Amino acid sequence: MTRWTLFGALSVLVAVITAISYGVAPDPVQSLQSAVRVTARTSFLLFLAAFVASSMMELAPSTLSRALMRERRYLGLSFAFSHFLHAVALIAYVRIAPEAFWVGRTPATNIPGSIGYVLILLLVITSFKGAARLIGPDGWKRLHSIGVWVIAVIFAASWLSRIPHHAAYAVPGIVMIGAMVLRGVARYRRRVGEA
Description:
Mean pLDDT: 94
Strand content: under 5%
Largest sheet: none
Helix content: over 70%
Oligomer: single chain
Low-confidence stretches: none
CATH topology: Four Helix Bundle (Hemerythrin (Met), subunit A)
């Protein structure tokens, strides 16, 4: 399987899962709510795989960690596609049922997500050689490091802030925090090894 084939397969899988979740709901509003939820979850899983790839390679080299590291770019691009579908579902939801969307929300609550989308766009653009050359290797490394950390914090905060609505949201929140700790440990180990 080529790397672009992997991206295509993951994107089709996300689109099919989203379409099924949309189609089985009993009415248009619930269909969009379901699509928003499922794309949040597929985005989280794909981001998580890309986020921990280098740390797993550093701390626990294996066939799996090598595969994740090798395919990290395409996992990241698949995450971006999934989150694009998430944005489409959110926009449709806001247009069809604004009164339901804005319950318990203010414009300020959308700031973290908006920042996340700007960073995702920048990460996607600089995942291609031409744009990467324009910002140089140091700029690329800085952007991608800061970008993925900010997105990780947004995911963690998003899941954890929903715990009052349902205790199950603690699971992805804790998983994301664990992934952040794992990445921090790998970075510390790398620095100690270089000292």
